[in-house]
Amino acid sequence: MLRETIERSGWYPAVRGPERRQLIERDVEQHWHLMIAEARKALEQRT
């Protein structure tokens, strides 16, 4: 969920390819916990 958000948001517009993916992966690892509440809501809405 966070990865999709970052990828669609245009973060790191000057960086391309594998380097950009690495930066995004680092951000996901560092900030995933910020999306817990939103992820829970999305899962609850599926059922």
Account of the 3D structure:
The chain is mainly α. The chain is built from 3 helices and no strands. Helix 1 (2-9) packs across helix 2 (17-31). The longest helix is centred in the middle third of the chain and has 15 residues, at 17-31. The radius of gyration is 12 Å and the shape is elongated. The model has no long low-confidence stretch (mean pLDDT 90).
Kindly list the characteristics that best describe this protein.
0% strand; mainly alpha; 72% helix; 47 residues; single chain
Concise synopsis of the structure shown:
The protein contains three helices and no strands. With 47 residues, the protein is an all-alpha fold.
Globular, elongated, flat, extended or rod-shaped: what is the shape?
elongated
The largest sheet, given as strand count, sense and whether it forms a barrel, is: none
Distance between the termini: 18 Å
What's the β-strand tally? 0
Assign the structural class, choosing from mainly alpha, mainly beta, alpha/beta, alpha+beta, or little secondary structure.
mainly alpha
User: How much strand content do the residues show?
Assistant: under 5%
Q: Helical percent range?
A: over 70%
Mean pLDDT: 90
Q: State the order of secondary-structure elements, H for helix, E for strand.
A: HHH
The Rg value, from CA coordinates, equals: 12 Å
Secondary structure layout plus pairing:
Blueprint: H1 2-9, H2 17-31, H3 36-46
